Amino acid sequence: xxxxxxxxxxxxxxxxxxxxxxxxxLTAVPLKLESDLLRITVGAETLVGRLWPALAHWVALVxxxxxxxxxxxxxxxxxxxxxxxxxxxxxxxxxxxxxDPVKNIWVIETGMIACVLVIPMAxxxxxxxxxxxxxxxxxxxxxxxxxxxxxLARNYVRRVIVLERPGAG
Length: 169
What we know:
By secondary structure, this protein is mainly alpha-helical. It has a domain at 2-27 and 78-164. Helix content is 83%, strand content 0%. The protein has helices at 2-26, 31-42, 47-51, 53-72, 77-93, 95-99, 105-128, 133-164. α1 runs antiparallel to α8 (133-164), α2 packs antiparallel against α4 and α7 (105-128) packs antiparallel against α8 (133-164). The protein starts with a helix and ends in a 5-residue tail after the last helix.
């Protein structure tokens, strides 16, 4: 009975991760709308913008860059479309652990490695692209928060292995 309960928890955690991965990927598509909404939310004329002027300046710069890119070089957005596609494809790999987490624990562990790799990626390439440190920290948070459900799921899978295969732990 305990293994059954653990399997249910594993599925909930992985389903949460799956949906989060798909949704975060899909946010790469409507960048113009999102940057406009972000400027309305934290722009210079808002309370947040007045309290954190560096953020307001960054958001204004990004919003202007996206607007100019949409106007003059819209084909560049094709790259963000592929980014969304990549998120969806990665999420598809988690269908295996949703079906059989013990057999597919390697997918969970690979996802954990990918979450860890978000941090050096942001910290190495962010400065090369002129990304402010506070924004790189926000990017790193995806890896930090992403690893939590995967870590929990992996620990639950290990417990299921011990419960279902005595002597395997």
